[in-house]
Amino acid sequence: MNKKGFTLIEMIFCISVILVILLLVIPNVTSKNTVVKNKGCDAQIEVVNSQILLYEIENGELPTSISDLTGGTHPYLTEKQGICPNGKSISIDDGQAYVDE
Fold first, then answer.
1. How far apart are CA 54 and CA 48, in angstroms?
2. Rounded distance, CA 57 to CA 51, Å?
3. Which residues pair with 29 in a beta bridge?
4. What is the phi/psi pair of residue 10, to 5°?
């Protein structure tokens, strides 16, 4: 009776260990995704703020909305850049970009 292979108990034990490891890792991965999207949003706001300065230098006035930066013959931003990676839209108030809550 010298058969090579795993017994049913060994297989169940290995699968349960793998499941425990996955249960410990999955919440960390999903929370990291949220953090990355929020950091991406902060970076996107900085890009919009830099384009606000460029718009003010070239036009002599502050833009009143994102559409001022995304429209016209020479847009400062693309339509995608008016939205954060987390899906929230970016607005402009008094020359500063912020995220709509």
1. 10
2. 10
3. none
4. -65, -40
pLDDT in the model for residue 5: 78
CA-to-CA separations, 51 to 21, 54, 83, 96, in angstroms, rounded:
46, 5, 14, 10
**Cα(39)–Cα(89) distance, integer angstroms:** 15
Query: 10 Å Cβ neighbour count for 55?
Result: 20
pLDDT tens digits, one per residue of 43-83: 999 999 999 999 999 999 999 989 999 988 889 999 888 89
Give the span between the Cα atoms of 19 and 3, in whole angstroms.
Answer: 27
**Mean pLDDT of all residues in 85-98:** 90
Task: Give residue limits of the domains in the chain.
Answer: 38-101
> Minimal CA–CA distance to 70: which of 61, 60, 82?
82
pLDDT band at 11 (very low <50, low <70, confident <90, very high): very high
